[in-house]
């Protein structure tokens, strides 16, 4: 099956599921340089697969590009496809990390899923592809642990 053309620069339909969402990649003009790219997703939404209630998270996606960059419009569409998707916090976080890693084949990738509390318990989920490339500056994700009112 031939890959669809890039979604950048044209109107596209919103994907209904993460599986049908297309993640696009573009050539990395700095592929000989190790550097970090960070995507911050402060309003991620999915559904609890048991109750159907909405779940909310702050996602931080860091990666060291190889030959490819992740095209941001396609990431926005992919992230939006989770709004009506039922999956546990752990599944959503790891699924997103694995899908991005599979599509762009970065030198390194990590995702932090900082989920807002439901039932009084926040859940933080972390996944990465392996070791950080030597000499790569990787700042902290900067998302404070959930403290509630205390």
TrEMBL record:
Pfam families: QueF. The active site is at residues 48, 55. Its EC number is 1.7.1.13. It catalyses: 7-aminomethyl-7-carbaguanine + 2 NADP(+) = 7-cyano-7-carbaguanine + 2 NADPH + 3 H(+). GO terms for molecular function: preQ1 synthase activity. It is found in: Cytoplasm. It is an enzyme of class 1 (oxidoreductase). GO terms for biological process: tRNA queuosine(34) biosynthetic process. Substrate binds at residues 70-72, 89-90. Pathway: tRNA modification; tRNA-queuosine biosynthesis. Keywords: Cytoplasm, NADP, Oxidoreductase, Queuosine biosynthesis. NCBIfam families: QueF-II. Belongs to the GTP cyclohydrolase I family. QueF type 1 subfamily. This is NADPH-dependent 7-cyano-7-deazaguanine reductase. The lineage of its organism: Bacteria, Pseudomonadati, Pseudomonadota, Alphaproteobacteria, Hyphomicrobiales.
């Amino acid at each position: 099956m031939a890959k669809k053309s890039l979604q950048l620069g044209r109107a596209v339909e919103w994907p209904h599921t993460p599986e049908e969402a297309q993640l696009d990649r573009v050539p990395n003009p700095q592929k000989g340089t190790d550097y970090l790219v960070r995507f911050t997703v402060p309003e991620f939404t999915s559904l609890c697969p048991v109750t159907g209630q909405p779940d909310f998270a702050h996602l931080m996606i860091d990666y060291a590009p190889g030959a490819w960059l992740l095209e941001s419009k396609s990431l926005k569409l992919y992230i939006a496809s989770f709004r009506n998707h039922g999956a546990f916090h752990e599944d959503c976080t790891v699924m997103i990390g694995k899908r991005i890693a599979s599509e762009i084949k970065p030198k390194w990738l990590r995702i932090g899923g900082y989920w807002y509390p439901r039932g009084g318990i926040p859940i933080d989920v972390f996944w990465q592809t392996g070791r950080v490339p030597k000499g790569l500056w990787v700042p902290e994700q900067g998302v404070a642990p959930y403290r509630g009112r205390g």
